[in-house]
Amino acid sequence: MRIGVVGAGRIGAHHAAVVKALDGVGQVVVADADHERAAAVAERVGARAAPSPEAVFDGRVDAVVIAATTSAHPGLIARAARAGLPAFCEKPVALDVPGTLRALREADAAGTLLQLGFQRRFDAGFRAAREALRTGRLGRVHTIRAVTSDPAPPPPEFLARSGGLIRDCLVHDFDAVRWLTGREVTEVYARGATGGAGAAAFRAAGDVDTAAALLTLDDGTLVTATATRCNGAGYDVRTELSGELDQWVVGLDARTPATSAEPSGPPPPARPWTGFLERFGAAYRAELAAFVRAARGEGPNPCPAREGLYALLVAEACETSRRENRPVRPAVPPESGPAESGPTG
């Protein structure tokens, strides 16, 4: 099987190396708007460099992985659809709802597979917690607490095109909560804060460095989701599921960047997690392996791109709540309602 990878930045280079090592993949073609960068990645992973992103769609690949800058996602999704190619796209489909809907309609009209990159669905801890919740081991789950913390702010140029902390980071938690519980978010209330040395860059981008959201699910379960760009202890992604029978924690291990204040507590980690590629390395491999299987017709799409629309609508509601300081109900996606769609996977 021949796989094209469009985008040779940090995540694109990582995906190219992972895809090249998958069973059944014979050739990987890497493309980027910066051809020299694509050539360097191709040489490093044992792939071939295409002269341009457009050249990937010349009929010489069987599927495509889209890992370019977010603004390019809708156009590349449409190009893959018109070429009849199965596509994997890193989240988000687009930075706004209209762009997301246009891209989804392109793929739907072509009848092509479009898988979205929510890698937490493929993480061993998240999958175990989902099984525990769905089989009743926790009893009635009354509270969920989700944490996403980056160790340091990204460059200012990234902030300007990221869509903001809620859309860029907390959207992962919104998708994970839907996928874990099988429930929809009916109301949100969100706040944001900014301080410290990098405050000016965040304010210039209309963003915040720390955010918190209270979500209410359609069965009454309460969810708190927090995110920050300023967690100096390390990269921290945890989700706590608290039920009447038991409590499970995803992301609590020997590398969790936290120090216990208890005299008998565990020591601080010698090697805390440093970033998402390290923390979710195995999940990314499982995610792309699932895409290759689905592209071959050997399994279902494990994360249809429409799932990204639901998470984005929650993020948009949170942004409105943050700006207007009030509870907000997420919009219902066009052409489908929560009862019809249901979180997949």
From TrEMBL:
Ranges for domain Gfo/Idh/MocA-like oxidoreductase N-terminal: 1-118
Spans annotated as Disordered: 320-345
Molecular function in Gene Ontology: nucleotide binding; oxidoreductase activity
Residue ranges constituting the GFO/IDH/MocA-like oxidoreductase domain according to the UniProt record: 126-244
Gene3D superfamilies assigned: Dihydrodipicolinate Reductase, domain 2, NAD(P)-binding Rossmann-like Domain
Keyword Oxidoreductase on entry: yes
A Pfam family per the record: GFO_IDH_MocA_C3
Keywords, alphabetical: Oxidoreductase
InterPro entries associated with the record: Gfo/Idh/MocA-like_OxRdtase_N (IPR000683), GFO_IDH_MocA-like_dom (IPR055170), NAD(P)-bd_dom_sf (IPR036291)
Entry-linked PANTHER family: BINDING ROSSMANN FOLD OXIDOREDUCTASE, PUTATIVE (AFU_ORTHOLOGUE AFUA_2G10240)-RELATED (PTHR42840:SF3), NAD(P)-BINDING ROSSMANN-FOLD SUPERFAMILY PROTEIN-RELATED (PTHR42840)
Similarity-based family: Belongs to the Gfo/Idh/MocA family.
Protein name stated in the entry: Gfo/Idh/MocA family oxidoreductase
